[in-house]
Design goal:
InterPro entries: SBP, TAT_signal. Keywords: Signal, Transport. This is ABC transporter substrate-binding protein. 44% of the residues lie in helices and 14% in strands. It is an alpha/beta fold. The strands form three sheets. Strands 1, 2, 3, 6, 7, 10, 11 and 12 form an eight-stranded mixed beta sheet that branches. The radius of gyration is 22 Å and the shape is globular.
Length: 427
């Protein structure tokens, strides 16, 4: 994962990503962001998790907490917040000394909490955890292992193999040329089928970023915004070509794409590995999940590395009261093979250790093993995550790409505008 120096990290909290209230709460301590005080060897610690607030996962997560508390004879005080409020709430409470112990984080939030200087370096736990290289990297920041990977996946492409078969598509496409040919065949099916339910609403058009990388754009060169280079322009022009040919549809976001795919009305769409569970719950055809196939993003030319955005959760530990036990719990929850395999069996989120992925409960699941090998293996973090304004940077790019799709601007002009605006969001 991309690392930053402390000055860059502190800048992350200087924009409006967390809102004005959170910004005030995240100001550095007068002591220079010193770690919270408390007995690190205490046998009572907290565990904060948004998954404990979600019906689909809370039972499985609570079972891990209870198993650890019983085995180690410790007390774990749990807390939870809805996902959409989570980062703001955790940031406020960490600044106020109202949260301790272990905390579940989305990997894109790691920098925001790391900047406060209150997280324990979990390198000793990571060294013995048996994590895969890509998983371990998701918890690294500024040269330290501040998070232990709980689940590591990616945002990638999913195909409906039944639709492809009906359209006469032989196998899964591996290059842009093959992908276009497959879309054209699916387009002839009619019946309201969308060949590629790609994001075309501004709210989700950040999905264009891995396509820009596919065409050769680094997105970011050091601190220089690379969006607007020849490769990113070519990617957007290609996207526009698909749009004009009605191979992708207008006004589609992730939720729309999931619904289309669940109804058997889309041959391809982008999603995280959780897609299987979502589609299963929505699909009238209960055999649809058997027809879902993850595929590596098609490349510009054979031999290129497929691009995908890293996705996942880590567990961090606040240095202070109960930190020793919390760190041991984080290790247990993320690397104990029986625990991670059992968790996978209940919620289908892939483990992050080599042993966990090899466990029969996981290895026997073809969808997960294919996704890990074809998509997650080459996934990388969003390079804009290093900035507090990363969401605004993504939105700026998305809005300009949408302008291209609806014919209001050329790709070159639109991305030049996006790059100029994004520069002001880097500080």
């Amino acid at each position: 994962m991309t690392t930053m120096n402390r000055r860059d990290a502190l800048r992350m909290l200087g924009l409006s990503t967390l809102g004005a209230t959170a910004l005030a709460a995240c100001a550095p301590d007068a002591s220079g962001g010193s770690a919270p005080k408390g007995d690190t060897a205490a046998k009572t610690f907290g565990f904060t998790s948004w998954s404990l607030n979600e019906e689909a996962q809370k039972g499985a997560v609570q079972a891990i907490v209870d198993a650890y508390a019983t085995a180690k004879q410790v007390k774990v005080n749990t807390a939870s917040f809805p996902y959409n409020e989570y980062l703001n709430q955790v940031t406020l409470k960490l600044r106020g000394g109202q949260v301790s112990g272990a905390i579940q984080l989305d990997i894109s939030w790691l920098g925001a909490l790391a900047a406060m200087g209150k997280l324990r370096d979990l390198s000793p736990q990571a060294a013995k955890g048996g994590y895969t290289e890509v998983a371990r990297s998701s918890g690294q920041f500024d040269g330290k292992q501040l998070g232990l990977p709980w689940t590591t996946g990616s945002i990638g492409l999913i195909a409906n193999t039944d639709l492809l078969k009906k359209a006469g598509v032989d196998g899964l496409p591996s290059t842009i040329e093959e992908f276009e040919a497959a879309l054209a065949k699916v387009g002839k099916l009619g019946g309201g089928v969308v060949p590629y339910a790609a994001a075309t609403k501004a709210a989700q058009l950040k999905d264009i970023l891995p396509w820009m990388q596919t065409f050769g754009s680094p997105l970011l060169n050091g601190e220089e915004i690379a969006v607007g280079d020849d490769a990113s322009v070519a990617a957007v022009e290609w996207y526009k070509k698909l749009y004009d040919a009605k191979l992708i549809a207008p006004d589609v976001d992730r939720f729309d794409a999931r619904a289309l795919f669940a109804q058997g009305k889309a041959a391809f769409y982008d999603d995280a590995i959780i897609a299987r569970g979502v589609v299963s719950s929505q699909a009238p055809d209960k055999t649809l999940t058997e027809k879902m196939a993850p595929l590596a993003r098609p490349v510009l030319k054979a031999g290129d590395t497929p691009r995908a955005l890293l996705w996942g959760h880590v567990i961090v530990v606040v240095d202070g009261e109960g930190a020793d036990a919390a760190a041991d719990f984080a290790s247990f929850a993320t690397s104990d093979t029986a625990t991670v395999a059992g968790f996978f069996e209940k919620v289908k989120l892939p483990p992050t250790t080599t042993a966990g992925l090899a466990d029969p409960k996981v290895a026997g699941d073809t969808f997960t093993t294919d996704w890990t090998e074809k998509i997650t293996k080459t996934a990388t973090p969003n390079p804009f995550w290093r900035y507090a304004g990363y969401a605004q940077i993504e939105s700026t790019i998305a809005e300009q790409v949408q302008a291209v799709l609806v014919g209001q601007s050329s790709a070159k002009e639109a991305l030049a505008k996006a790059a100029e605006t994004a520069k002001g969001l880097q500080k």
